[in-house]
Amino acid sequence: MSSNSSPLIETLNPERFAGLSMDFIGAGLTGLLVKNGQVVRTLKPGRHFSFALPLLEQCQLILVDAKLRQLDLRPDGNLVSRDQFLINVSLAVIYQVVDPKRVALELSDPLAALTAAITDGVAVAIGQFSLPELTNQGRGLVREYMLDHATGYYTLGFSLEDVRIKDITFPESRGVIRQVEGMSARQEAEQEAMRQIQIAKASQPIVQPHNSPPVQQVNLMIEGKTSHFNQPGLTVRELEGKLHQPPVLPPQQQPILAPTVLKGDDTQSSKASLVHRASGTLIAISTNPFTMGREPNNNLVVQDPLCSRYHAKIVQIKDQHGETLYQLVDMGSSNGTFVGEQRIAHHQPFWLSPGLVIKIGDREWTFSIN
What angle do CA 318, 360, 308 make, to 5 degrees? Predict the structure, then answer.
């Protein structure tokens, strides 16, 4: 962090003769005349006279720089984009003091408070945009967002006049947010390689060759890992054959099954389901609660590195008319649960309605009630 070399606030004890003092306020400064700890007058640039009773009134003159000043920032730590990539940002903020009394007397460290507020604003701004958007036009988007939400800094006594984004870069270390626990070195290397590929492709248009057969993608679970089949020309029957192949287990190893849950009256009458958006697979919400996570004992096992072991759950609730309603609850996951583009709060129920899209990591399901 850096700012102008001149101090933002300067306190003077004027010399007095028989209680009378003459003070000069320079251009671009605002003076606060303080007697016994209270502001008695605000002084504009120019010459001013003041009187204080000797030994009875302690008088100070506080000068506040009201000129346009620059604050250079490079927020510590990494910021997260909407699609969960780590981003580094450096920027220069042009600001001005609009409430000298609040800045000088009510804030213990005005520049630290302004820096923290701007850093939070930049983090929120970065979270509004995806990696391709930040790669192509990130400087303009972040600047526009910061200026559109500049009114919040008035509560600190400052105004934001301009924001200049110097640079938007990606950290050299792993750039994808994920659940670190349980990941092997090979999986971390695969994540880093995928990140580099996505960064390289972010600013390049995707061009499909002419007369090429359609490519269908199917995700299969084999030996606890996800395999991707991108094979042009596969028929639906061939794909179904691959999907129904039993998983290959190591010798003397039995699969861990989810616990058996007896259905009550509310679950038997439930007709809600999740529809996988990529494959169209229908998953009935047959238990209450219906848990989702990476551990095998969840009702819906999500094999995604961005998914926590116990990530989220869907709870069924009866209203006063006997109708079944559904709530989605994030169970404190590391990387969050999204409904559409909105990340829901931890442990706060979110009411579900048909057609909403639930996203965990890279997996998406459409909530449906038959």
Answer: 95
Q: How confident is the model at residue 243 (pLDDT cuts 50, 70, 90)?
A: low
**Helices 110-126 & 131-148 angle (0-180, nearest 10):** 140
The dihedral over CA atoms of 360, 361, 364, 367, expressed in degrees to the nearest 10, equals 10
Q: Taking Cα atoms as reference points, which of 176, 188, 152, 192 lies closest to residue 78?
A: 176
Q: Residue 168: which of 211, 129, 201 has the closest Cα?
A: 129
pLDDT at 44 (0 to 100): 87
Return the amino acid letter for 1.
M
Lay out the sheet containing 324-330: strands in order across. Answer: 300-301, 290-293, 312-318, 324-330, 350-351
Look up tokens 């609009």; give the residue: 98
Say if residues 367 and 353 touch (Cβ distance below 8 Å). Answer: yes
Query: How many whole angstroms separate alpha carbon 213 and alpha carbon 210?
Result: 9
SS3 64: strand
Instruction: Encode burial over 305-330: b for 16+ CB neighbours within 10 A, e otherwise.
Output: bbbbbbbbbbbbeeeeeeebebebbb
**Torsion over CA of 343, 169, 306 and 215, rounded to 10 degrees?**
100
pLDDT digits (tens, 9 = 90+) for 139-175: 888 888 888 888 888 888 999 999 998 888 876 544 4
> For residue 263, what are its two tokens?
């259905």
DSSP string, 143-192: HHHHHHTGGGGGGGTEEEEEEEEEEEE--SS--B----TT--HHHHHHHH
Question: Tens of pLDDT along 71-110?
Answer: 998 876 568 888 878 888 889 999 999 999 899 888 889 9
Cα-based angle 163, 144, 341 (whole degrees, multiple of 5): 130
Q: What is the residue whose two structure tokens read 């102008």?
A: 4
Residue 364 bridge partners (DSSP): 359
Contact call for residues 97 and 65 (beta carbons, < 8 A): yes
